[in-house]
Write a structure and sequence with these properties.
With about 220 residues, the protein is an alpha+beta fold. It contains five helices and nine strands; from the N terminus they run βαββαβααβαββββ. The strands form three sheets. It has a five-stranded mixed sheet with strand order 2-4-5-7-6, covered by helices on one side.
Length: about 220
Amino acid sequence: MNPDFAYVDELVPGIRWDTKYATWDNFTGKPVDGYLANRIVGTRELCAALNRAQTSAETHGLGLLLWDGYRPQRAVDRFLGWSQEPEDGRRKARHYPHIDRREMFEAGYVAAESSHSRGSTVDLTLFDRTTGQLVAMGGDHDLMDPISHHDAPGVPEAAARNRRLLRAIMEDSGFNSYQQEWWHYTLADEPFPDTCFDFPITSLSRPSAAKMADVRSIGRGRT
C-alpha cells in the first residue's frame, strides 16, 4: 500500500465500515477486483477529516459507517466491463431499477475515472450510537436513481433531515458533496487531485514498499 494511505479504522476511533465491493452485496453481485479484504483505505488527510466528521456526528448521538473509500482503478475497470455484459436481472431491482446497466456511466452514477481512486472520497451513512441501527436515508447505497439525489422529491421528511444532517457534518469537516448521490463525499483539499492509484486493498496492517502500486495521472472523475 502507498505510504501516504492508511486503514481508516486504525486512525479514526469508533468508525464502522462494511466494504460493499469486498462482498457479494453490491451492484455487480460479487466481490470486485482489487478488494481483497473488507477494510476501508484512504489518504491520511482523508482520515484526519473523517476524525472531525466522526466527532461532529457524536454530538448528535450518531456515528459514521463507511461503505467505500479508496477504490483501485482495476475495480473501476471491472465496473466498465460488467456494464457491457448481458443483463441477468439479479441486482437490477435494488440498484438500477429504471435504467439499463449500460447507462450508469452516462447517467453519472459510475465513472471510468473515479474520484474514489484518488484516495480522498468516501461513501458513507450515519448510525445511531445507542441502537447501532443505520438511520433512515430514503434509499440504499448505490441506488442509481433520482431518489438518491440531494433534495430529491418524494423522500420522507425524516430521511430528508438525516441527509441534510450528514451533508452538514461532512461539509463542515472539509468535504464536498456529489449532487446525484447522498452518500458520496470528496475531500475539498485532496492531496492527489490528478492521480489515480491501483494498489489492491489487503488485510495487511503494516504495508511494505514492495506492495506499492502503479499510478495513473487523470482528470477529476465523478463517482
